[in-house]
Description:
The chain is of the alpha/beta class. Helices cover 28% and strands 20% of the residues. It folds into two domains: 38-198, 2-Layer Sandwich (Chitobiase, domain 2); 204-484, TIM Barrel. It is elongated. Bound molecules: ligand TNX. Ligand TNX binds at residues 327, 364-365, 395, 412, 436, 438, 449, 485, 487.
Amino acid sequence: MRTSRGDRDVNGCGQLGSTGYSGAAVLVRWMALLLCGFAVASCRSPVPPEPASVSPLSNSSLGNIIPQPESVTSTNDSFVLTAGAKICVGPGSAELVSIGQYLADKLRPSTGYSLQIVAAAGLPANGSIFITTIGGDPLLGDDGYTLTITPDLVSVVAYQPSGLFRGIQTIRQLFPPAIEMSTVQPGPWVIATGTIRDHPRFGWRGSMLDVARHFFSVQDIKRYLDLMAYYKMNRFHLHLTDDQGWRIAINSWSNLATYGGRSAVGGGPGGYFTQAEYSELVAYAQRLYITVVPEIDMPGHTNAALASYALLNCNGVAPPLYTGIDVGFSALCVSNDTTYAFVADVIREISSLTPGPYIHIGGDEASTLGSTDYVRFVERVQTIVQSAGKQMIGWEEIAQGRLLSTSIAQHWYSTLAQTAVLQGAKVIMSPASKAYLDMKYDPSTPLGQDWAGYIAVKEAYTWDPASQVAGVLESDVLGLEAPLWTETT
Ligand code: TNX
């Protein structure tokens, strides 16, 4: 990493400058990448290079930004990134330098430019990209930023470093798509001028990946996180356990991973993350300003755990490992104290590896349990999560229990989110018929399911989280999350 103090000629940070249109094509690309990133190695280069023009660009050139910013104003001129360009950061803290470094790492392979990082003492040189928290507007919050592009300078101003990190994703999206290529491309690297002011309508911008039905490598997960970062997503929900596999090492119950991790849908080899690998992913996500939300699904969706330890079963008999795709048939023995000792151990170990404030306990589709047993289990586990110093999240079924106001229900198909809200709990919106990445686009989509219907890209992009469930208002909704279940992936 090259870092030097600013010693260049100075020049004004310039004016401001445009109107929002969100291109569905970019979203198609995102969803396709999420899915094919695992299946097809050639997905590394998202789109073929497009010819760019050095002439002043039209207003729509500031348009294809995902998610759609709060406001976009075009000034009908252009900025061109050239070989001598520097990335200036102010102040020159280690954190801001590393954000500048991240941007340089993204832009170097396709441009071939050196893009030196300069910890700026003053105003940056002409032709630079400038990122700063100096003068950042607190009203923009943690993830907000203002991006101003003049013919001389691209500058991002944010209240927090995380806002700068979101802002530089917009810069990546505004360049011609060939900027994302991993080999040198001809350029030129032109951005239309103008001003973008942006902060999330909902703070929770999540995606979930199911590593239990099929297992994915540390490299795969990092790729998923990279794609999330590109679209300014900030919560990564990792579905670590299910009937078909237990994917995280637990030292106090080691069979969970070493035996319960051996299966997968269709009989594949399975696998699991060591605690060191999980920590590596958490740290990788942290550098992308993404909070990891680990899920240990219980009391249902637990066949892999039940198969690993006979004493978790009410009849004391461990079932075989499971490789099918049915749901709802398994449950921990909720009347047995050993079960709660098990849950406490697992939650304690996961909590100690997870800096974020959340633990997701699943809670979905425990169809073999009566409602009294189910509710008692959820309430007892809520206390265990609280003792571990974390906030409990569960799929909306948990709203049948008495929820703390700090607990969070994740909507997926019913009206139970209303019951959560009446108890003062907040809601994450993941309606299966809108947000599930494993639902096919249409009957011709090769991978995925259709039990919640087909989801065309336009439908996935235009639903309103604040009018999804009657009685669940904008102020009740923390945000949204797109789950990728992997039975077919
Ligand atoms: C429903 S959504 C499930 C998952 C499946 C998914 C497949 C939810 C809480 N449960 O167990 O993988 O459908 O689309």
